[in-house]
Amino acid sequence: MKRVKIFADANLTVGDVDPNVYGSFIEHLGRAVYGGIYEPTHPTADKDGFRKDVLGLVKELNVPIVRYPGGNFVSGYDWRDGVGKNRPTRLDLAWHSTETNEFGTDEFMKWCRAAGVQPMMAVNMGTGTVENAARLVEYCNHAGGTTLSEYRRENGAKEPYNVRYWCIGNEMDGPWQIGHLSADEYGKKAVEAAKVMRWTNGEADSLPHGEELKLVVSGSSNPEMDTFPEWDRIVLEHTYPYVDYLSMHRYYEYKADRKRPLEDFLGSADDMNAFIGTLRATLQYVRAKHRSHRRVYLSFDEWNVWRQSAPRTEPIWKQAPHLLEDVYTFQDALVAAGMLNTLLNNADAVKIGCLAQLVNVIAPIMTENGGRAFRQTIFYPFAYLSREARGTTVRTFSESDTFESMYGTARTVNEAVNFDREKNTVVVSLVNYGQKAVDIELELRSFGALHAEQYVEMVNSNLFATNTFDCPDAVTPREKELPSVRGGSKIFLRLPAMSWSFLKCKVQ
Ligand code: AHR
Question: 23, 92, 150, 164 - which has most CB atoms within 10 Å?
Fold first, then answer.
């Protein structure tokens, strides 16, 4: 059996992991809100109608920030419909559903508090105006004394929400987006929105200081867009001095009708890495053009596996229909684990990540209306890494084999190493995308003497195995016998074919 050497030295770092890289996303789409996080008639519902079983699972995932209310939904959404006593029922033209507006901004803020997460709001840049966007900032963040801030107080929130993270629209490069714009049109509109949102927030000029807003400008919806990466360059040339992050989105899918379906799917993590690489370079280019010393970072605020080619089975205009309720397989979890490794390995550039989405809609948590909830296969790598892979990402050098996919050459063994100096832990996440087991020689140098504290493995003989309501634990990680650490730095592991492994070591 071939042995793969992986080497990491504590002094050779990539960058600090921003905790927000473990964020997620709730959109008014299908049953993400209604029947997902909010179901007043559910047996576990609290006084605000929030499902406590779901809150428990969200806490287990250890998500620090949640993006809301869309997604495509936000580009036709009037936030005023979702506050106060009169809540009109509207047609949602993004998902062809009916939106009752029973749940809106104030409910989301309460839910965030209950879940212990920070809100990341998105404003409507499709049908919405710069004025609407600024007024939502006023509603959320202005202390009092104006009609809108007093309205929030009347609606129960005496103190301002002080929302810091704001997305200026969603996927504005997509023709499917309500109010889609060209890069030039959007770039100009985004600058005006950013300026006026900041002024509303009490920032004297357009540059950040103190309690400033963190603004995310819409980047490419995916690297297959004809406008990629010109969209990003043009939008950034307009907005660079005014924003903090460039948004990027990417979903991958297993397609059985491809020539090499498995390889193409397993190449996802490396393709995601290439996508980040292009936008990292675009940011550097525009920064130089602006003669700027400020860094704008990447917000990978939608990523996941998504069976986009699955047909819709629900009628249009239904309220909270079953949409995008992908049931994830074991191999989906392997791809999601590789994508997480990619985010970690780009910790210097990617400072926000949102697993899209959180509940029911392409999500790690599935619920029944009025009933049970279960953890999907993709739940596990996320939960382990969000709890433990913190601190700093350390660069790895690997002798892994490679394979060919539709995206080009990908690594068979895909790894990330993280060093948390506060907790004194080193965490290694390893995916073996190979069809054979592989022996790993892991050399973790300059961390201090290490001993293994936790070793977990996810493997399954059926790549298409799933968890279900009746069998919620069919695909779960299992604890393994701890490996010994030779000389405090060398560890030998055997990774089964098609597996994800998680190793936590403590510095003695
Ligand atoms: O997450 C589902 C959808 O995917 C979002 O609404 C949109 O932003 C993206 O295309």
Answer: 23
